[in-house]
Amino acid sequence: MKRERIILAFGKRWDRCLSEKYNFKDIPKRIEGRSSGAYILFNRKRTVYIGKSIKSLRRRIREHTHDHLKKKWNCFSWFITRKRYTSELEALMDSIFWKIQDVTFVKQIAQLKGARRIQEDEIKKLQKK
Question: What torsion do the CA atoms of 23, 121, 106, 42 make, to the nearest 10 degrees?
Answer without folding.
Answer: -20
